[in-house]
Amino acid sequence: MNDATLANTGAVVIIGAGLAGWTLAREIRARDPARSVSIICGDAGDFYSKPMLSNALAQGKSAAQLIQTPASAQATKLDVHLRSHVWVEAIDAANHVVQTTGGEVPFGQLVLALGADPVRLPIPGVGHALSVNSWDDYAAFRAKLDAFTNARVAIIGGGLIGSEFANDLALAGHAVSVIDPGQWPVSQLIDAQQGLGLATALGQLGVAFHWGDVVASIEQASDAGAHRVRLASGQEIEADLVLSAVGLRPRTALAELAGLHVQRGVVVNGFGQTSHPDVWALGDCAAYASASAKAAEPRPLPFVLPIMGAAKAIAASLTGTPTAISFGPMKVRVKTPAFPVSVDAV
Q1: Which of 36, 83, 148, 285 is the most exposed, having the fewest neighbouring CB atoms within 10 Å of its CB?
Q2: What is the pLDDT of residues 205-250, one digit of tens each?
């Protein structure tokens, strides 16, 4: 089927080849073997588990070993037209066209599975810090880390991802320092009792915490690549690598340019539709109105289980069975083997 006929056949175009995009493609294919499905992504599109990035060292896996299915094999298995290393420049929702660096792509239904970007704090020298939000990011991080037998790693942020990386790096023998303005790890999700238990367990692995403090600047301290991390308190930390893990911000720029409703994310209704009925959003970029009865406004749910549930419901709706997205109780497991913690995601 060529591009000229896509917009008139109900063809589904998905922007993004992360867990959300590939899961949706799989769910659609399970319900409709004949539906035309395309995925557009700026990277290679390989299928991997993003949550495994923060515990790969403990599992003895290299960056390459984290790829579960190469993009070409995944596309063949699901009968998906994959457009990898192609960037979307604009969405013309009224005319059902996506403008990309590889030309125009018509669509019947468009799904935004754009993900989120790491938050980068306005710290002098923050360019010296690495962030890990994709396989490509992790491969770059590991290439630098593997140059050391026992690296000194400063982690900015003691939330979910920062704590998971702290545990993984410490188990591998690296010297880890964590800087966070809070008073215990993962403070946005777990209570003080759990947090202090986690901090104690990580401390026993050698993780040094700097609570109630923030990074004031990052400087390259030597020609060998070491860095000096200056804290607001006046303390200084010498580090071979600096990892920024202070949260994620949903990717909304394309949606805003297309005139879609954006509020903390791309706002979707109870079925996953955006403010345009033929454009949907899923995963880290979406702000779900149905996320919680207690929520005052639509909010993102940057966890695996909500992605899986939303993908299943959206696939049903796209293949002829309108299905509301339902978020029941969901547990998020903090991957800190030193002190395992589970918390409610919704």
Answers
A1: 148
A2: 999 999 999 999 999 887 667 999 999 999 999 999 999 999 999 9
Angular region, 126: left φ>0, alpha ψ -120 to 50, beta rest: alpha
Q: What is the pLDDT of residues 149-162, one digit of tens each?
A: 999 999 999 999 99
Are the CB atoms for 100 and 106 separated by under 8 Å?
no
C-alpha span between 330 and 315 (Å, rounded): 20
pLDDT digits (tens, 9 = 90+) for 66-100: 999 999 999 999 999 999 999 999 999 999 999 99
Q: What is the pTM of this model?
A: 0.92
Gap between the Cα atoms of 202 and 210, Å rounded: 13
Fold of 3-117+249-334: FAD/NAD(P)-binding domain (3.50.50)
pLDDT band for position 295 (cuts 50, 70, 90) = low
Q: What is the fold of 120-246?
A: FAD/NAD(P)-binding domain (3.50.50)
Q: Do residues 131 and 219 lie in contact, with contact meaning Cβ atoms separated by under 8 Å?
A: no
Nearest 5°: CA angle at 103, between 100 and 105?
A: 75
Residue ranges of domains in the chain: 3-117+249-334, 120-246
Q: Which residue has tokens 């913690």?
A: 341
